[in-house]
Every structure is written in C-alpha cells, then in structure tokens.
Amino acid sequence: xxxxxxxxxxxxxxxxxxxxxxxxxxxxxxxxxxxxxxxxxxxxxxxxxxxxxxxxxxxxxxxxxxxxxxxxxxxxxxxxxxxxxxxxxxxxxxxxxxxxxxxxxxxxxxxxxxxxxxxxxxxxxxxxxxxxxxxxxxxxxxxxxxxxxxxxxxxxxxxxxxxxxxxxxxx
Length: 171
What we know:
The chain has helices spanning 3-22, 27-36, 41-63, 71-93, 97-103, 135-154, 159-169. It is mainly α. It starts with a helix and ends with a helix. The protein is globular. It is 67% helix and 0% strand. Mean pLDDT is 78; it is low at 107-127.
C-alpha cells in the first residue's frame, strides 16, 4: 500500500473516530474512504465495523455510571445483541460482494467512490426501557434489538443511532 494511501486512510479514520465521539456517523467517512482506496466492499465494511468497537468500548466505559438498567433488562438485550451481531457477521461473510453492494444502505456501486450521507445528530431520547418494564415491553425491545443487532453485524454503520431510536419505541 502506498504511503499516500496510508496517510489518507489514517486521516479518514481519525476524522471518522472524532465524528463518532461527538455525534456518531463516523462510518459515513471511514467506509467510503476504504472503498475509494480500492479495498473490497465486504473487507471495507468488516474493517470499518471492527474499528467501531474502539468507540463503543470507550463509550460504554465512559457512561457506565449513567447506565441505570436492571440486570433483568440488560442481560436479555446484551445476549440478543451478541447473537444478532454474530448472525449479521455470518450473513456478511457469506454474501457475494455484488449482492452486498445492492443491499447496502446508500446503494453504492462496486467501482465508484461510495458517497453515503446521513443526518446523525445523536440526541439521547428521553424515554428508555425502565428497570421495572413489563415483560411485554422487554419482549418487544428484545425483538427490536435482535433486528438492530443483525443489521449492526452486517452493515455496522449507524447501529448506535438505530439503538437510540429503538429504546423509546419499546418503552
């Protein structure tokens, strides 16, 4: 890989990470940058998704004191997130590149620069799943989380925003 490509990807990654730290949506910079430099679509997506783990882990650590969620709510959501993420990753790795490009949000084509955009202002919703949530509310949240987790395992980008949108809907 040429030095200018490495420098370009470094700055795209840094900018994407900074955007994720502030508002989310860093995948809309990092993923197209990987595609632009010639990385295969599925490899670019997988690389981008793995890179998101750094931010997710840091956010979880930073906000752990603010998480006032009972184990009754957290455990099913965490388990279903893991299962859905693995299922999405499995689907991704078994999808032909051309099919991936057709179903990918933004419909990027294989040989063009992927120009994806989003309006991702991450404002935490007021409502969330309460510690004393009913069993039906928890079941609905778990189903929604499974869908979001499969999406996250497959596409990666935007999953935090989808989770923020999912929580108040199931409260």
